């Protein structure tokens, strides 16, 4: 301890001396710097040197010529500025901080007045990245939780199964122990058996044992069998039971040979077979008669069938679906005509034919002008052919196409018929329409909407669906749709016939002829004059009494 104290004092003395020497060196350095900065020989011409405010203004202004003369003056000025900054470091740092804050405030204000899309995009990108990181973190946590739950479920499942297996093994062990105990009991019983015990009880066993100790026969059964045989032989039952009936045996044996070898049948079997065959033929005849009865025509239908099959139909009503009675095609409501692709014309001929003035008589839909007086000029590919007497079909490229028909004047429709001529042409037969939907235009749309059963199947704002015609290609060529009584009281201006499918043609659907019968408003007004005319027979008037009353009636129900 005595040795350590002098050493510590020596260290402290050395430190104190080092501090004194350092302070003395700093003072000398400051004094030398001051002498360098404030050398009076350099200010011989300075009469207005400002000693009170320590400012450099007078120094620079008064001694500028001298600084130019001596190059060391500039160095002294720099050193003097550094010294002042070092002496007043607190004020200097405060000024620099204020300057930095002002610059920051100015730059923030400028950014607010001039926003930068790049900064905003960077900020939004950073926000998206942050959201993505949070989302990824959430997904990782979710996966971790799911993994933990699955692992826990698996662990519980494995524990459950292990418990079940363990319980089963315990049961197996218990059963094995039971089997061992039973085996031990049996072995103990077997070991307890001996020949002495068997010999003692041998007289009680009801069997015969030979020299080789094999069981031969039960003595009781042997006695029973001997007594039964003796009793059977002593009676005549055996003779009566086994006595052969020679005549019956021969008859049965003969029938067996005939049936199996020759196939001969006796009279009873033949009569039975004939009766069965008669009943079968009778049943077939009855079924055939029933079918013929159901397919045969009623007496009232025979004349109509004969007339329709003869190809002659009496036309006693005006057909308003003919162009001769003023019917026209509504082009913008009709589908496009089917035009087969041909390779007969080159592209050059098609250009010249398209620019030829003779082919510019088509309307907007490509149909020719509807001129019923010049039937020779009617284009077979135009839908207008349906309204003429020309023997041709109109083909539309739309399988479920439409055709619009406008009447010359509104009519009260009495019948709607469609005719598809039977021709020896598979394409025209397979393109026959299956279902025709009739949509009409009238001034009384509210009345139509109220009575039509197809209120949910309208076509546009002006046309209302009122009828459907299901055309059967296996039936007559002309088939009609039943016009209800409420529809006969409505004036129809025009109609659209919509096709719903055909009989298998994938390229086009064809239409032949429509027949629309009825009367106009003018005809209704002239009925009264016809009924009062005495020159017209009652036979003619009778037809108007029965039919015309339903047309144009003001009483609508």
UniProtKB/TrEMBL annotation:
Domain SUN, chain residue ranges per copy: 326-521
TM region positions: none
UniProt region (Disordered), positions on chain: 27-57
GO cellular component: meiotic nuclear membrane microtubule tethering complex
Matches recorded under InterPro entries: SUN1-5, SUN_dom
GO molecular function, one term: protein-membrane adaptor activity
Keyword tags: Membrane, Transmembrane, Transmembrane helix
Name of this protein: SUN domain-containing protein
Organism: Cyberlindnera jadinii (strain ATCC 18201 / CBS 1600 / BCRC 20928 / JCM 3617 / NBRC 0987 / NRRL Y-1542) (Torula yeast)
């Amino acid at each position: 301890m005595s040795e350590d104290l002098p050493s510590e004092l020596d260290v402290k003395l050395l430190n104190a001396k080092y501090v004194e020497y350092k302070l003395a060196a700093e003072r000398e350095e400051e004094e030398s710097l001051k002498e360098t900065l404030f050398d009076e020989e350099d200010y011989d011409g300075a009469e207005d040197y400002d000693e009170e405010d320590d400012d450099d203004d007078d120094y620079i202004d008064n001694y500028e010529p001298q600084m130019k003369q001596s190059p060391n003056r500039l160095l002294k000025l720099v050193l003097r500025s550094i010294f002042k900054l070092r002496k007043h470091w607190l004020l200097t740092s405060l000024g620099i901080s204020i300057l930095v804050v002002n610059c920051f405030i100015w730059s923030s204000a400028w950014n607010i007045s001039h926003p930068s899309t790049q900064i905003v995009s960077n900020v939004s990108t950073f926000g998206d990245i942050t959201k993505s990181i949070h989302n990824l973190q959430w997904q990782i946590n979710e996966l971790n939780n799911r993994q933990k739950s699955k692992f826990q479920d698996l662990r519980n499942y494995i524990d459950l199964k292990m418990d079940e297996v363990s319980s089963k093994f315990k049961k197996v062990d218990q059963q094995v122990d039971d089997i061992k105990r039973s085996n031990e009991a049996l072995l103990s019983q077997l070991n307890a058996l001996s020949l002495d015990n068997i010999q003692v009880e041998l007289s009680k066993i009801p069997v015969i044992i030979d020299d080789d100790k094999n069981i031969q026969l039960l003595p009781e059964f042997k006695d029973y069998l001997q007594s039964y045989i003796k009793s059977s032989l002593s009676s005549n039952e055996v003779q009566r039971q086994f006595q052969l009936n020679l005549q019956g045996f021969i008859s049965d044996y003969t029938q067996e040979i005939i049936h199996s070898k020759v196939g001969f049948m006796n009279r009873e079997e033949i009569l039975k077979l004939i009766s069965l065959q008669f009943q079968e033929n009778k049943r077939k005849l009855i079924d055939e008669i029933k079918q013929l009865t159901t397919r045969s025509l009623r007496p009232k239908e025979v004349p109509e069938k004969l007339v329709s099959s003869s190809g002659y139909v009496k036309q006693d009503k005006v057909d308003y679906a003919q162009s001769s009675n003023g019917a026209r095609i509504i082009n913008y409501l009709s589908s496009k005509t089917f035009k087969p692709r041909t390779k007969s014309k080159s592209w050059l001929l098609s250009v010249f034919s398209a620019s030829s003035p003779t082919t510019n008589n088509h309307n907007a839909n490509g149909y020719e002008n509807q001129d019923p007086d010049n039937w020779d000029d009617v284009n077979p590919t135009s839908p207008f052919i349906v309204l003429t007497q020309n023997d041709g079909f109109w083909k539309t490229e739309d399988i479920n196409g439409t055709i619009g028909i406008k009447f010359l004047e509104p009519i009260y429709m009495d019948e709607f018929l469609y005719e598809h001529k039977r021709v020896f042409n598979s394409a025209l037969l397979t393109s026959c329409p299956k279902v025709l939907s009739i949509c009409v235009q009238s001034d009384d749309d509210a009345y139509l909407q109220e009575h039509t059963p197809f209120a949910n199947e309208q076509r546009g704002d002006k046309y209302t669906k009122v009828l459907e015609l299901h055309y059967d290609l296996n039936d007559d060529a002309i088939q009609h749709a039943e016009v209800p009584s409420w529809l006969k009281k409505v004036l129809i201006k025009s109609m659209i016939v919509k096709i719903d499918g055909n009989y298998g043609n994938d390229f086009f659907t064809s239409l032949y002829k429509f027949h629309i019968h009825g009367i106009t408003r003018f005809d209704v007004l002239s009925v009264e004059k016809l009924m009062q005319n005495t020159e017209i027979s009652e036979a003619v008037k009778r037809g108007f009494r029965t039919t015309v009353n339903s047309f144009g009636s003001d009483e609508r129900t």
